[in-house]
Design a protein that fits this description.
Blueprint: E1 2-3, E2 10-12, E3 16-19, E4 24-26, E5 29-32, E6 36-44, E7 48-56, E8 60-69, E9 77-89, E10 94-106, E11 113-126, E12 129-143, E13 156-159, E14 163-178
Parallel strand pairs: 1-3, 2-4, 3-5
Antiparallel strand pairs: 6-7, 6-14, 7-8, 8-9, 9-10, 10-11, 11-12, 12-14, 13-14
């Protein structure tokens, strides 16, 4: 945990940053008095829906979310994600959010589905609500015999004896409610 008044430069913590002023906090949870906090509802190309808390300064922010995959009716796949993002301001209402995120789907039975994203999300703000959507560059690794093959088209893939790895281009969109 890192607690400060007014930070000039980077404020770094493993889990939580607290400050009156900090434009560049790096942690999963950032409580900056003059910063931004929001709850986002998103869906991606695998039909994984997420409720995500984004918090940080005017430039950098942390990402922490919970969700569920709606694609497969035969099993319940719960999701968790975490990451870091940066706002690239274009105008007062328009910006691009660049994010690096890891996401895991699980049944709580020892299997795994891990996805690592790089996201470029153009966003348009209308008051307290922001709409965003954009491309994602994804690396996945999952237990092969569990049927987690959500995608059919990969830029690169490798099938091992027990697991699968692949890289593909996807998409994501959602609504953000600014707190």
């Amino acid at each position: 945990m890192n607690i400060a008044k007014s930070v000039k430069g980077i404020q770094l913590a493993g889990l939580i940053n607290i400050a009156d002023s900090s434009d560049y906090p790096i942690a999963l949870l950032n409580f900056v008095k003059n910063g931004e906090k929001s709850i986002s509802l998103t869906v991606d190309e695998t039909l994984t829906g997420m409720a995500t808390f984004r918090s940080g300064g005017k430039v950098l922010y942390g990402i922490l979310g919970l969700g569920y995959n709606f694609k497969d009716d035969s099993k319940s796949l719960y999701a968790i994600e975490s990451g870091l993002g940066a706002h690239i301001r274009i105008s007062e209402r328009f910006r691009v959010n660049a994010e690096v995120v890891n996401q895991h789907l699980m049944e709580f039975k020892g299997d795994h589905y891990a996805k690592y994203h790089i996201r470029l999300l153009p966003a348009y703000r209308m008051g307290r609500i922001t709409m965003f959507a954009g491309p994602t560059f994804n690396y996945v690794n999952y237990t092969e015999d569990k049927g987690y093959g959500f995608m059919n088209h990969y830029i690169w893939s490798k099938q091992g004896k027990k697991d699968f790895q692949g890289i593909y281009i996807g998409a994501m969109g959602g609504l953000q409610f600014n707190l």
